[in-house]
Amino acid sequence: MDQNWAAEQNIFEVTRKTEKNRHQSDVERLAKTHWLSDYARDIFLTMREQELRRLPMFFLSSQVDDRQKLLHFLQLVARTHKLSRCALHLAVYYLDRFLDYYRVRPDKLFMVSITCLHLAAQIENTDAFIPRFSELNQLVRNVYTLSEYKVVERKLLCFLNFELVRPTTASFVELFACSFITRSEFAAYNEMLDECEREHNIQAFQRYGSFEQMLASLAQQLLRMADYTLNIYSFCNDSPSLLAAACIAAVRQVSGLKRWSQYLIGLTSYTEAHVEPYMDVLTDYFYYQTIQHVCEFSFGQNNPILSSPDSGFEESLTENTQLVVSDEVVTVEVETYNIITVQLQSTSPESTKSLSEIQSHIKRPRFEDNTDSPHPHKRTRFQNEPKNL
Description:
The two termini are 26 Å apart. The chain is mostly helical. The strands form two sheets. It has a three-stranded mixed β-sheet with strand order 2-4-5, with helices on one face.
């Protein structure tokens, strides 16, 4: 017990409470068969009930400035080990709540992030392969010890009260992805394009050869839009089902479809008035990312950020793990149970541009490995009292 307490002291900075107060397949199944069955509505209602038990956010973290850096790092790790999108979203949920409750030493933030992703992968990944701590530790050049990961894992499990199964925006997006467009809407969409070409001689939006092709393409955009919600910190306390509905409205808005309908009210249980505020934020973010990507493609990067040859961080993502970061492939099942495979767009450049910044924070001072060191970090006792929730 004393050893565990000493180990926690080396990782967490907790303020006193007041008296009152192996290789996974790169194919991701979006529309699972049971979601298209008679039980789909029951699954949806169960997920809606579970999301009410998500831990609240009080936005008290003093380390919020590190969040974007940690999010980019988690995206790199998830892509390297081919972990599912739901695992990534659940890991961010764990991390946001944990940092809202505890203050973690800056040099331990990546270890806490890796632990959150490791736990989330065990909950969300359907494949038997879950990377071990030793494999994940290679991404940070084995800077942490296995015992430190175990300390953080125990702390996380106790903090979450072992209630690890919680729906995320990605969970609801996967549920809706096979049915958020109807064939009648596809027909109306083609009529709109024909009218634009006749009257204005322009093609306002992309034309699709079939309903299945349109569903596959827009499902790809829906997944990307769901990932955008992770970057918007103010969304942390909002219901994942509402955010997923807003993602649907945003994708339809930017694609030329009517953004909401009576059918979608029945599908998501939200009205247009509910989703409109979130949809506006998401569409603005979508256009911002699109313009940024076009500018970078047009003008190129004159000063690319390169890690130093001896840093080992870039190499650790490929050579040390013997895994190559590759594009994901999404499989979508439609009403007729035909399988459509589409290639996901590559991750936004912003998710990898801060590697040199990440590298500068992952190394520990050598004196911390010396148990006889009188450094204050090794001698100061931190009160293990969380803030009020």
